UniProtKB/TrEMBL annotation, chains A, B:
Transmembrane segments: none annotated. Keywords: FAD, Flavoprotein, Oxidoreductase. Its cofactor is FAD. Belongs to the FAD-binding oxidoreductase/transferase type 4 family. It comes from the Bacteria. This is FAD-binding oxidoreductase. The lineage of its organism: Bacteria, Pseudomonadati, Bdellovibrionota, Bdellovibrionia, Bdellovibrionales.
Length: 460, 460
């Protein structure tokens, strides 16, 4: 170990420092696989004080720090590629306080999302931000990337559940932001600046998270839909008239791949270009009748061609598989993926426009669409054509990126709906944010992290 | 007019500039009355381009600008006290676009809150941020102060309804922040920095505002409660088990003043130190029965001593008067007022602590409490003792300020729950925000407004 790294032992225990190759590889990255990982050490703080000491040490020695949570990120934000020291929050994973009256918890950043969900459940409450990686993702990472997921229509993003943050900035200063208050009109809300900042302004060492009441029972509807415009009309109808929790869309191609891969029976006899999975709260029988009324209106209007309502929780879970198994069912095609968003109403023209651009450039390629229509968040997947090598496909996909982001820009959309910017989308940031905004972000970064040691080279 | 002011006519119409004494006084201030108003001119931009031209003119001439909305603020944020030019958004009051699918509107900042509420209503939607000044307050001001109000428990603050902002910074740059997107994980969310910044970073010239579905029918309960701890327990019960919209508390003294002033009959026969007004959504009869069940549990537990449920909308409106008429009923005592917040669970010890401090210093003074308990937002009112002159009382109240804010600080609360900082609370900001935070706020201010021309001297 270098002298600088040895100095870590003056304020950390030996078991809080790892420098073996295996650890450097394991903790040095997130779920992205295409970066060369080069970490100098992995450190495991156990307190805010440890993090302060680490930042002061890094500042003195001009060493860059990379924050590391559950390492489930998809943007390379937690990847160490320049010899950084990785700060893992694995050992700061306590739920420190719970207030049933405030309906909130004070947690350390390393608390795994699922552990928080289970804690809430045990206390007759609910943590509603839910996505595929809840079993490993950590709350600190969720906050730093403003994680979204499948219930955003009803419950919003991680941002909406953060009532307070304790952070250590790049100067080693500890800030206690908002202290869990509901109302606090005292100047700029720096808490919101940290949410989604991907560790570039400072590291989160504690968070006050709000919890929701336990949700009422749910019903899941799968509907075959005549076209994208009808999808929009069904959405507006369900959003205004029911207590809508999720509204997911997938194309016939996506469904075909799921049926092929899983052996599940088709949900409906009718074939349609698009399908919608809608989850709604039904507190009682009257609610249920009301939901059926909304569904029947959509049928009468001709928006829905065919549909089915879950008759049990088991059936609801099966219905969800038509949507949730898409990614896995496409995996063998090693598809090009992108996670983009436009405002909800622009989904149909955006998809039509991008489909046209892609079919002109690549007439034989198979494009598979699915997404959280309720948030305008689309997942585009392009399957690698048979016979094309992975290398050639990846090369071609760099051109596809530009086509996708050009179209996103045309519709004033987002090049990263929920996966963040990190390293993967840094060079495309101008497609969503203006030069003036990026200039201001850089000035803000310099105020919080004047030595550029907090996750440098990420986002901006 | 000075040459500098004459220059305004090169890019504004004559009827967009006012310099007569009456106008200077009228547009030069908000609802606060104790500042000496000294405005140089009032200007009325009609477009983002007008605002850009104004900022560039101000920058060149080193003239300070004060933004002005409905002038209903209570912190002096829109008061011109140093010869500033006031930028009134009265002529930028159009609803420019409405999307029923996105359930959002694009509005100019001068749209009056009530006009937006009415527009939403006409389109079978709902704008839920609601407070006393909705008839005159403008949306730009609501956003700049992150207005709250009486339905925060259910619908959150103005912040939660802003999907996008167009702003002009202190350099004359136009930023389009978030473009109405639901999901957008592309770096620092500058939109949230502007919300609550009281015009010190730049001026809002357009906003995308989300609308909610029309709420179901409501029931209002008035309950006599045995003590503050019981208030907390009732809150937790209603918050987790019903669809709670408002949860307001007032003391027996507050109720007595309302009855005395309005001639309303007492809501309940039982006398209690505290009363709670709770508003809940009831979609159907089953919901209503469920709410009654929750109420009965609170009775059985002994938390509620007596209570009454509204049997009609007319009765619900009458019940609200017990809470809404408090301010007016206290007005003749020209009371000391403060708008403060702590986390909900800290309300009882905070109130007990402050009551003790005040009764020790002023044993004969009458302290009247009420507030939005569901957000930890308390309104403390101290009545001017009979025989004490206004001047003497105001002087004494400066000492009360320090006692109040010392106690707020002890409980990590907010010195301004929803009225902002402006001029009135600027010198107390350190009671809620740390020196480090204030230092960072100043650096952020300098990045957006390097010449310090955007509402200078306010907040920080």
């Amino acid at each position: 170990m270098s002298n600088q790294l040895l100095e870590l032992e003056s304020f950390l225990q030996k078991d809080q420092i790892k420098t073996d190759e295996e650890s450097l590889k394991y903790w040095g990255k997130d779920w992205t696989t295409y970066f060369d990982i080069k970490a100098s050490a992995i450190v495991f703080p156990r307190s805010t004080e440890d993090v302060v000491a680490l930042v002061k040490w890094a500042r003195k020695n001009k060493i860059a720090l990379v924050p590391s949570g559950g390492r489930t990120g998809l943007s390379g934000s937690a990847a160490a590629t320049q010899g950084e020291v990785v700060v893992s929050f694995d050992q700061m994973n306590k739920i420190k306080d719970f207030s049933p009256i405030d309906q909130s918890v004070i947690i350390e950043p390393g608390v795994v999302t699922e552990a928080l969900q289970e804690f809430a459940h045990k206390n007759q409450l609910f943590y509603p931000v839910d996505f595929a990686a809840t079993g490993s993702s950590q709350m600190g990472g969720n906050i730093a990337t403003n994680a979204g997921g499948i219930k955003v229509v009803r419950y919003g993003l991680t941002r909406d559940w953060v009532a307070g943050l304790k952070v250590v900035t790049g100067t080693g200063e500890v800030l206690e932001l908002n202290n869990g208050l509901v109302k606090n009109a005292t100047g700029y809300d720096l808490r919101h600046l940290f949410i989604g900042s991907e560790g570039t302004l400072g590291f989160i060492t504690e968070a006050t998270i709000k919890l929701a009441p336990v949700p009422p029972p749910m019903k899941v509807l799968v509907m075959a839909v005549s076209g994208l415009d009808a999808v929009m009309k069904i959405f507006a109808e369900f959003k205004t008239k029911t207590s809508l929790v999720a509204f997911e869309m997938f194309s016939d191609k996506a469904l075909a791949k799921v049926l092929e891969n899983t052996g599940l029976p088709a949900p409906l006899e009718t074939q349609s270009p698009f399908y919608v999975l809608s989850e709604v709260e039904t507190r009682n029988e009257q609610d249920e009748e009301h939901v059926l009324g909304v569904f029947e209106k959509c049928l009468e209007e001709g928006w829905v061609v065919d549909g089915v309502l879950s008759q049990s929780d088991v059936q609801a879970t099966t219905f969800w598989r038509y949507r949730e198994d898409i990614s896995e069912s496409l995996a063998k095609y090693s598809p090009y993926k992108n996670d983009i968003a436009v405002t909800i109403s622009k989904v149909p023209p955006f998809m039509a426009d991008l489909d046209k651009v892609l079919s002109t450039a690549y007439p034989t390629w198979e494009v598979v669409w699915f997404g959280h229509i309720g948030d305008g968040n689309l997942h585009i997947n392009i399957l690698r054509p048979e016979g094309m090598s992975k290398e050639e496909f990846v090369k071609e996909c760099r051109k596809v990126d530009v086509m996708v982001f050009d179209t996103v820009k045309k519709y004033k959309g987002s090049i990263s709906a929920e996966h963040g910017v990190g390293l993967t989308k840094k060079s495309f940031l101008t497609y969503t944010r203006s030069e003036a905004e990026i200039g201001l972000m850089k000035q803000i970064k310099a105020a919080f992290d004047p030595d550029n040691i907090m996750n440098p080279g990420k986002v901006i």
